[in-house]
Design a protein that fits this description.
It is built from 11 helices and 8 strands. An 8-stranded mixed sheet has the order 1-2-4-3-5-6-7-8, with helices on both faces. The protein has one domain: 3-Layer(aba) Sandwich (Rossmann fold).
C-alpha cells in the first residue's frame, strides 16, 4: 500500500498542518479525527487495516487530516467566540488548502467525508456546508448539536456549525438539490457511550425525512459501543453498501 506523510504551513491556521495519504487511486476519502485525536489515529486504531482491500484495489484513496478541536469546539480554555473563529479557520484550511491539493492530485472534483465520534461531526458538517466538495458522507457515532461545547450560547458561528440547528431552517435549493444527489450515511449504536449520539442521530433523521433528503440512517444493536472495534466493522460494511 502506498503511504505518504505531508506537512505544510497553513496561513489559515497559522502553523504547520500534517496529514497522511493511503492508497494510489480511487475516490478520495477525507477522514476527520475523533475527539482530540490526530491525523495518524485512523491507522493506529486499525481503520486503515479494516479498509485495506478497498485501498489496495484502488477503489478509494484515504486522506487523514489533523484537527484543531482542542482550540475550537473541544477547548476548555477559550471563549465561545474564539472557538467559532478557530472552527471557521479550519473550514478555510480544508476548503482552500486541502481540497485543491486533493483535486489536483486525484482528478476527482468531489470527495467522501468520514469520521468517528468528533470526526463524524466534522464529516457531516462539511458534507452539509460544502456539497460542492463532498458528495458522500459516512458519519459514525457523532454529536451534531454544538451544545456539547457551548451549552445554550448561540451566535452565527455556532449556529452555522451546528447541523441540528441550521439544517431544519435550510431551504436553499443549491444545497438541497445537491444533498438529494449525494450519498449520506449516519450510524449510531445503542450500547455503551452512545446515548447522546442517538439523540442527535434521531434529530438529523427527522429533519432529512421532512426535507425529502435521501439518506441511510442505521441504528445498530444495544451491544454496539462508541468504540473503535465497532467502527472497524461499520466502515467496510458501508463502503460495500456504497459500491466500492
Amino acid at each position: 500500500m502506498n503511504i505518504e506523510y505531508h506537512k505544510w504551513y497553513s496561513p489559515n491556521i497559522g502553523r504547520d498542518m500534517e496529514f497522511k495519504v493511503y492508497g494510489h487511486a480511487g475516490k478520495p476519502v477525507v477522514v476527520f479525527p475523533s475527539s482530540g485525536g490526530s491525523f495518524y489515529e485512523y491507522e493506529d486504531f486499525g481503520m486503515i487495516g479494516a479498509c485495506r482491500p478497498f485501498i489496495e484495489d484502488g477503489k478509494i484513496q484515504v486522506f487523514t487530516v489533523a484537527s484543531v478541536d482542542k482550540e475550537a469546539w473541544l477547548s476548555k480554555e477559550h471563549s465561545f467566540q474564539h472557538r467559532g473563529w478557530m472552527a471557521n479557520n479550519y473550514d478555510r484550511y480544508i476548503c482552500n488548502e486541502v481540497t485543491p491539493y486533493i483535486r489536483e492530485r486525484t482528478g476527482y472534483h468531489k470527495f467522501m467525508s468520514t469520521g468517528c465520534s468528533m470526526g463524524a461531526y466534522h464529516a457531516l458538517n462539511f458534507y452539509l456546508r460544502h456539497p460542492d466538495i463532498f458528495d458522500q458522507c459516512v458519519a459514525l457515532s457523532g454529536l451534531y448539536d454544538l451544545g456539547f461545547s457551548v451549552g445554550d450560547y448561540m451566535d452565527d458561528n455556532v449556529y452555522y456549525n451546528s447541523p441540528v440547528h441550521y439544517l431544519p431552517n435550510l431551504e436553499d435549493p443549491w444545497y438541497l438539490d445537491q444533498y438529494r444527489e449525494g450519498d449520506l450515511i449516519i450510524c449510531a449504536g445503542q450500547g455503551a457511550w452512545e446515548a447522546e449520539t442517538l439523540v442527535d442521530t434521531y434529530a438529523i433523521r427527522d429533519t432529512i425525512e421532512k426535507k425529502g433528503i435521501p439518506a441511510r440512517i442505521e441504528i445498530w444493536g444495544d451491544d454496539v459501543a462508541h468504540d473503535w472495534p465497532w467502527w472497524k466493522i461499520q466502515m467496510p460494511y458501508f463502503l460495500n453498501l456504497l459500491g466500492y
